[in-house]
Amino acid sequence: MGSEKYPKQNEFDAFLKKHGGLSNASTDCEQTLFHFEVRRKNFKEALDRFAQFFVSPLLNKRSSEAEIQAVDSEFQMSLQSDAARKLQLLSSQSRRGNPFSKFLWGNMKTLQLVPQEQGLDVNVHAREFYARAYSANYMTLVVVSGEMLDTLENWVTEIFSQVPKNGLSQPSFGDCLLPFDELFHHVVKVQPVKEIHQVDIVWQLPCMFHTYRCKPLHYVGWLLGHEGPGSVLSVLRQKGWALEIVAGNGEEGYEYNSSFSLFSCSIILTEEGLMNVFEACFCVDLNCRE
Predict the structure, then answer these.
(1) Lowest mean per-residue pLDDT among 41-55, 173-187, 221-235
(2) pLDDT value at residue 175
(3) How far apart, in whole angstroms, are the C-alpha atoms of residue 279 and residue 290?
(4) In angstroms, how far is CA 51 from the centroid of its own chain?
(5) What number of CA atoms fall less than 13 Å from residue 44's CA on the CB side?
(6) Could you tell me if 52 and 5 are in contact, meaning their C-beta atoms sit under 8 angstroms apart?
């Protein structure tokens, strides 16, 4: 998408490509990350072009339609992903009305067809979302370069001081209930796309943002995933039930946010392990209690 200062479509990407650079972006549940790199001598101009996306984006209808096509393309590629399918299944088990219960992706149906049926203009809503969510007081900027720090500070002040501030408090989901009820003891069986036997055990926890310095979920994940003598995996391997264990919290938005955290333990099972799946889960539970 272009900006008022640089209105041509894909002009930023063309500039980066011309000067040996690249850019990318990713969207998570509560944050969006934009980043780029370019040759040092072209860095200031690239910064200015980059900043204009947040200062005065055009958000025209033609660009929006192109982005919807790109989002739908990514969605179509994920349809055969076991991880994506299990995540959507997990969200469908959450409390009705909880943010986690929403459709976690976007596609042509949700971003174009349904809005058209309901008489909604997606482009208008995109502009409203930009005004509400893209505010300087919500944003963090990281600049890395070989230039002097004073030079970088002057560039950032000059270029990014125009990013608007809407005066609203930053949105938070900290007051939401945990996504699953307290007696969430469900067993869900899934037919995977890949030829694999796997069991995922998931615990819900409160928001863990305040523990970012000590990272207890990483610590517990390391203990459960340990492969040495006396570990859960060593016991399961001796029984011929498991090949691998992965445990922890990957700090993705769906499992690490201002509302809750999820801790999971995934066991790759053998054929015999599949026949003894509940006993394998009991071994994990016993290890956690100890």
Answers:
(1) 173-187
(2) 86
(3) 17
(4) 23
(5) 10
(6) yes
CA-based nearest residue to 201, from 221, 178, 181, 182? 221
Nearest Cα residue to 123 out of 57, 55, 27, 73: 57
| pLDDT at position 184 | 75
pLDDT digits (tens, 9 = 90+) for 79-88: 999 999 999 9
Annotate 196-248 with three-state secondary structure.
CCEEEEEEEEECCHHHCCCCHHHHHHHHHHCCCCCCHHHHHHHCCCEEEEEEE
CA distances from 151 to 35, 146, 147, 155, 161 (A): 20, 10, 6, 6, 15
Of 289, 262, 272, 269, which is closest to residue 199 (Cα–Cα)? Answer: 269
Rounded CA-CA distance 288/217 in Å is: 12
Strand partners, 57: 3
Residues 211, 190: Cα–Cα separation, whole Å: 33
Cα separation, 250 vs 123, in Å, equals 33
The alpha carbon of residue 92 and the mean position of all alpha carbons in its chain are separated, in whole angstroms, by: 17
Distance separating the N- and C-terminal Cα atoms of the chain: 54
pLDDT tens-digit map of 5-60: 999 988 999 999 999 999 999 888 899 999 999 999 999 999 999 999 999 998 88
